[in-house]
Design a protein that fits this description.
By secondary structure, this protein is of the alpha+beta class. It is built from 9 helices and 20 strands. Helix 3 crosses helix 8, helix 4 runs antiparallel to helix 8 and helix 6 crosses helix 7. The structure holds calcium ion.
C-alpha cells in the first residue's frame, strides 16, 4: 500500500474514532448519581394515577410491567376522558384497555373517572363545590362518560377528590405514583394537587412517587426516540431547596420491549414523530416531594419588623427559575420561592419573583388547610398593589383586605395565625396569572405546622 493511502486510511480512522468518542460522551448515561426507586416488594400494592388515557404507559409502562411480573397488585386510575376534540373518549378508552392489556393488566384493573379533559385546574381551584359545578364545552355539568367509576358525578373538585379517596380506601395502595407538580401541563399539575389533597386529608401513610411528562422546550433531552439512552432529571429541578428527590427505575430488555409494544397501542396519540417516544428509554424516572415542616419558632421576632419590611419569612420551598408559560426567558413574574413564618397572632406568607411585582399580573397563594373540624380552602391574592384573603366554605365565602408589604422582589402578606390552630397539615400552591392565563405556578406542596 502506498504511503498516501496509508495516511488517508489513518485519517479516516482517526476521524471515525473522534466522532465515536464525541457521540459516546453525548449519551445521557446513568451515572448512579440518583438512587434506584421505587423499590417494589411482596406485599406492595401499586396505584398509578394518569390524568389522560396514555400517561399510564408513557411514564409508567416499565414499572407496571415489573409489578405484573412480580405479582404485585396494580390499579390504574385515568382521571379524564381524553376528549381532546380530535379523538373520541371511546377510542381513547379502547387504547388504554389494549395498551395496559399488553403490560399484563386486566380490564378491571383500570378505573376511569371520566372528568372533562382540560378541566382539572378549574375543578381544583374554582369549581370545588358540588352545587356549583364546572360546565364542559358541550354544556354538561356532570359526567356522562359510559365507563365512569361514578356515573353522573358532578364536574367538581370535591367529586373528584371523593372518587380518589374511595379508590385509595378500597385498593389500599402502599405506593401511589402520580404526576409531579412541576409538570407544566395543567391537568397534570392539578392531578398532582388532587392527590396531595386526598392523601393528606385521609392521612395516607404509604409512599408517594411522582413522574414528569411535560417540561418543554428542552426536556427530555433529546426529545425523540433514543431507546438506548437513559432518561435523566431536568437540570432546573435538581438540587433545589425542599425540591424533588429523584430516583431511577431501570428496566430489563423485556420490560423495555413490552412498554414499547404497549405504547404503540395508543394509535391516535403516538405518531412516529411524537416526542412522547422520548420516554422509551432504559429507565423510568420518579421523584418524591417531601412534607415541609413549618415551626412556630419565630414567635420572638417583633411583629412590626415584618410590617416595616425588616423581616422576610423563611423559605418554604424554591420554584424553578425560567419555567412557566414563557419558558427559558427571564420574566419579572417568574415565581422563585415561597416563604412562611407563623407567629402567635399574626403569620406571614411570602412570594419572591424574578422582578418587582407586575401590576397587570394577579398573584395567588392557594391553601387547603386540614383542620379537625373540616377542610378550609383559602386564597390570598395580590392584585394591583392590594392583597385580599378569601375563605371558602360550602355555599359561602368571605373576603377581606389584608396588609401587604413589598420588599424588593418579595411580596409579604399578613394573615391571621388562627388559620393554623391545632397545628394542621395544609397543601399550598402559588401562581401568577394575567387576564386569566397562567404565567407560572408552583407545585402543590404538603406542609405540616409543628407545635
Ligand atoms: Ca418559577
Amino acid at each position: 500500500m502506498k504511503l498516501k493511502y496509508k495516511i488517508m486510511l489513518l485519517s479516516v480512522l482517526i476521524v471515525t474514532l473522534a466522532f465515536m468518542a464525541y457521540s459516546y460522551s453525548q449519551i445521557p448515561f446513568y451515572t448512579q448519581e440518583y438512587p434506584a426507586g421505587p423499590s417494589l416488594n411482596t406485599g406492595d400494592r401499586l396505584l398509578i394515577v394518569a390524568p389522560h388515557p396514555d400517561d399510564e404507559v408513557i411514564c409508567n409502562g416499565g414499572i407496571i410491567g415489573y409489578a405484573v411480573e412480580h405479582h404485585i397488585p396494580v390499579k390504574v386510575v385515568v382521571v379524564t376522558d381524553g376528549n381532546d376534540t380530535k379523538t373520541s373518549p371511546i377510542t381513547r378508552h379502547g387504547e388504554t384497555i389494549n395498551g395496559t392489556k399488553i403490560l399484563g393488566l386486566n380490564e378491571e384493573d383500570v378505573i376511569f373517572l371520566g372528568y372533562n379533559d382540560g378541566s382539572l385546574r378549574s375543578l381544583l381551584n374554582d369549581y370545588w363545590d358540588n352545587k356549583n359545578p364546572f360546565t364542559a364545552p358541550d354544556g354538561s355539568k356532570q359526567i356522562n362518560y359510559p365507563y365512569a367509576h361514578e356515573k353522573n358525578a358532578s364536574y367538581s373538585g370535591s367529586s373528584l377528590t371523593n372518587n380518589l379517596k374511595t379508590i385509595i380506601n378500597e385498593f389500599n395502595p402502599t405506593i401511589i405514583v402520580y404526576p409531579g407538580g412541576d409538570d407544566e401541563q395543567f391537568d397534570h399539575q392539578a392531578t398532582s394537587g388532587f392527590i396531595e389533597h386526598a392523601t393528606t386529608q385521609t392521612g395516607y401513610n404509604g409512599s408517594k412517587y411522582t413522574y414528569l411528562l411535560h417540561l418543554p422546550p428542552n426536556w427530555p433531552s433529546p426529545r425523540s426516540y433514543y431507546p438506548e439512552y437513559y432518561l435523566v432529571p431536568p437540570k432546573q429541578l435538581v438540587g433545589m431547596e425542599n425540591g424533588p428527590k429523584w430516583s431511577v427505575f431501570n428496566l430489563t430488555t423485556h420490560q423495555e420491549r413490552l412498554k414499547e409494544e404497549s405504547l404503540q397501542a395508543y394509535r391516535t396519540q403516538i405518531v412516529p414523530s411524537s416526542y412522547l417516544l422520548s420516554f422509551l428509554r432504559k429507565n423510568e424516572l420518579f421523584a418524591e416531594y417531601s412534607t415541609i415542616n413549618v415551626s412556630r419558632n419565630n414567635a420572638n421576632i417583633p411583629e412590626q419588623d415584618y410590617a416595616r419590611g425588616l423581616q422576610v419569612p423563611s423559605i418554604l420551598f424554591v420554584d424553578a427559575a425560567g419555567d412557566g408559560k414563557y419558558h427559558g426567558k427571564e420574566e419579572p413574574w417568574d415565581i422563585l420561592s415561597a416563604g412562611m413564618d407563623i407567629n402567635k397572632e399574626k403569620s406571614w406568607i411570602s412570594l419572591k419573583t424574578a422582578g418587582k411585582p407586575v401590576s397587570s399580573a394577579v398573584y395567588n397563594v392557594r391553601l387547603n388547610i386540614f383542620n379537625p373540624e373540616g377542610t378550609q380552602r383559602v386564597k390570598i391574592s395580590v392584585d394591583n398593589g392590594a392583597a385580599r384573603l378569601e375563605r371558602e366554605g360550602i355555599g359561602t365565602s368571605t373576603s377581606e383586605e389584608i396588609p401587604l408589604i413589598i420588599k424588593n422582589n418579595t411580596m409579604i402578606m399578613e394573615i391571621p395565625s388562627n388559620l393554623f390552630k391545632n397545628n394542621p397539615y395544609f397543601i399550598l400552591s402559588i401562581d401568577a396569572t394575567k387576564s386569566g392565563a397562567v404565567l407560572d405556578q408552583t407545585p402543590w406542596r404538603v406542609v405540616k405546622v409543628q407545635p
